[in-house]
Design brief:
With 87 residues, the chain is an all-beta fold. The chain has a domain of 58 residues. It has no helices and six strands. Strand 4 and strand 5 form a beta hairpin.
Length: 87
């Protein structure tokens, strides 16, 4: 848990807008112009009751949609990550 992270969620009809501000110092990152990191961001979508995950979507990894919450779903697959370029 990052105590200094700020997260705002806004519902807009059938969509949500999520804004997250995470201090880079909390991640121990020192950014320099031209730095490229690899990573991914994802969202889980629940059923109307909010009890079960029905869909997973990711910014970069388009090869998954598994929703069983099985242990193998927690495995990281860097080959499916995208590039984060800092300028």
């Amino acid at each position: 848990i990052l105590r200094d992270a700020k997260i705002a969620v806004k519902k807009d009809g059938d969509r949500y807008l999520v804004e997250a501000a995470i201090p880079l110092t909390a991640l121990e990152l020192k950014l320099t112009s031209g730095l490229t990191l690899r990573g991914d961001f994802g969202v889980t979508h629940g059923d109307p009751a909010g009890k079960r995950t029905r869909l997973r979507t990711y910014w970069s990894n388009q090869h998954t949609g598994i929703v069983d919450d099985a242990v193998f779903e927690l495995m990281l697959e860097p080959k499916n990550w995208g590039e984060l370029n800092f300028q």
